[in-house]
Design goal:
single chain; GMP Synthetase, Chain A, domain 3; SH3 type barrels; 2 domains; five-stranded antiparallel β-sheet; 3 helices; 23% helix
């Protein structure tokens, strides 16, 4: 066990995650991707990351922030210190790790790296607990099946 002091208790962390998940029920199509806790400028930051197929707007973030903030006010005495609530999109370069991440990435371009630093790029067309299937472009488009456990990094492919 680490000597580093936990920012919040496991009980409060779980309560915050549950509240964030419940807050999503008010917003059709908006999903909670993750909640993170970190210290910045001496304050605890609670950050909720959101996803929506059409993309997350500033209005989405503000609306979720207002609902979640009200919910967190009911347990503010459980926090050891003051906290700052941040609500944002999950970001273009967020790694794809969980089954939910793969589900959200279906039919989008992704890039995958294996332990030998080989890169594969294509549209995610299928996934299961062991493999993912990418459709490549070019002169000879093909479906490539990659084993998930050998992949060291999977992320959205961002075109500039």
């Amino acid at each position: 066990m680490s000597d580093e002091k936990k920012l919040i208790s496991e009980k409060v962390e779980n309560e915050v995650r549950d509240m964030a998940q419940k807050a999503m029920q008010n917003f059709n199509g908006v999903e909670l991707v993750d909640v993170s806790f970190y210290k910045q400028y001496g304050k605890l930051n609670v950050e909720a990351f959101l996803w929506k197929k059409e993309g997350i707007s500033l209005n989405d973030c503000e609306a979720v922030h207002n609902v979640l903030s009200g919910m967190l006010d009911t347990i503010e005495d459980d926090f050891a210190d003051d906290y700052v609530l941040n609500v944002s999109s999950s970001g273009l370069d967020r790694k794809i790790v969980s089954d939910d991440d793969y589900r959200r990435a279906l039919d989008t371009e992704i890039e995958c790296f294996d332990g030998a630093k080989n890169k594969t790029h294509g549209v995610l067309v299928a996934y299961d607990s062991e493999n993912i299937t990418l459709k490549t472009e070019g002169k000879k488009p093909q479906n490539i099946v990659l084993t998930r456990k050998i992949l060291t990094k999977v992320q959205p492919y961002v075109r500039f």
